[in-house]
Amino acid sequence: MKLGILTAFRDQHKYYVRSCEELGIDYEIIDIIGPDWLENVKKSDCDGFVCRPPSKYQERKAMYDEKLYTISHFMNRPIYPSYDELFIYENKKMMAYWLELNGFPHVPTKVFYKKADYLQYVENANYPLVFKTNTGSTGKGVKIIKNKVVAKRIANHVFGFSGTKLATGYTPQKTGKILPVPAIATLQRHYALIQEFKQIKWEWRVVKVGDSYFGHKKLLKGDFASGSKLKGWDLPPKAVLNLVKDICEKGNFLSMSVDIFETVDNELLVNELQAIWGQSTTDLMYKDEKPGRIIERDGEFVFEEGEFTQHSGFMLRVKHFIEILKRSNR
User: Fold this and answer.
1) What pairing do the DSSP bridges indicate for beta strands 79-80 and 48-50?
2) Where are the alpha helices (DSSP H) in 124-167?
3) pLDDT, tens digit, for every residue of 73-114?
4) Helices (H), the chain
5) Roughly what angle, to the nearest 10 degrees, separates helices 115-123 and 148-159?
6) Helix (H/G/I), strand (E/B), else coil: 329
7) pTM
8) Is 142 left (phi over 0), alpha (psi -120 to 50) or beta?
């Protein structure tokens, strides 16, 4: 068995490399960013390809999606995670459409492509509202809109003051520690993604890779749980785990992190679906200060002690992909 490890713009494929080396799995690093990417994939004798798409800039994410589509659909070569879950990754528009289509509880979301529709909505909306960029993690692309004056100002940036050709774009992201300025590369133009504001107690993060579940609370820092890095090591309740299970079964998702708001009204609302996630601690789950995972046995979710998320969880992904490839070759 041999895996192809697809590169991106940063060196995060290193976690796949370390995992393969530790597991004794043959691998090949394949550059799919360069101009010869297609030839590199065509001549590869790998059984499947593992990838970690870029997420910082929308143009790079779109480019990577196109190449993954070519590999998985035109060439019929296996990739991990699956194309569908990677297409939803850092694509909040597609995530909202998917959740709505499949009837999962989520934060009410509207995507506007015409300025007139946007202005009509914000004129009569209940504030605050939440503006989000389509890509962006740890809350960097989020802006709480407190009134219609701010909402209309954003419209002029996103859709243009007097025409689409003059749309400067808008982003809540800043760069520069001494003199913060808008992160120009993340400017969003020609559409606006708006969500209702929900008052939450905390946010549950539950990761599912194969049959393994990992979960903890993301605690609030100001208005946001995303990016706070404040964690509560409570085990997620059964209702949360069942919601994650249903989402992954419906989408045939192989490797998925589901962020779920628990509101002050005790609603559970999906906030994010991310096939790739950050890991700021050695393990993703602890019970009585011991690391572990949750697995399902006879319809019940059971904690199992142990270390399962080595190399930021990439080792578990490699193991799962190898299992899938072996089953498909039987």
Assistant:
1) parallel
2) 148-159
3) 999 999 999 999 999 999 999 999 999 999 999 999 999 999
4) 14-23, 37-42, 58-69, 83-88, 92-101, 115-123, 148-159, 238-251, 314-328
5) 180
6) coil
7) 0.92
8) beta
